[in-house]
Amino acid sequence: MIVVPRLKKCGEHIDDHQSLLLQELARERKFTAIYDVEELEGALLKLDISRAAVMRDKRLVNALKRYIAQFKQGQ
To answer: Using an 8 Å Cβ cutoff, are 13 and 19 in contact?
Structure first.
């Protein structure tokens, strides 16, 4: 899972409590934390997409695999 907090500076929230909480939870390494959507491509490329096979509805998984494959082809 990739998590991006909503930020006060972007007018998305009234304070940065999501960012503070995310920093604490990211230490447990249950997900990938990014703080700028410009980091999303790199985070997607680092995902172990083989683990996504446990999901029952494969539409989202397949769409994400195609999306990630586009970036890998460009490298």
So the answer is: no
Longest CA–CA span in the chain (Å) reads 40
pTM, two decimal places? 0.50
pLDDT tens digit sequence for 14-65: 777 788 888 777 777 778 888 887 888 888 888 766 655 555 667 877 787 8
Helix, strand, or coil here: 3?
strand
> 33 - beta bridge partners?
3
Q: Are 45 and 71 in contact (CB under 8 A)?
A: yes
| Rounded Cα gap, residues 23 and 73, in angstroms | 32
**In angstroms, rounded to a whole number, what is the distance separating the alpha carbons of residues 44 and 52?**
13
The CA distance from 56 to 47, in Å, is 19
Q: Virtual CA dihedral for 49, 52, 54, 60, nearest 10 degrees?
A: -140
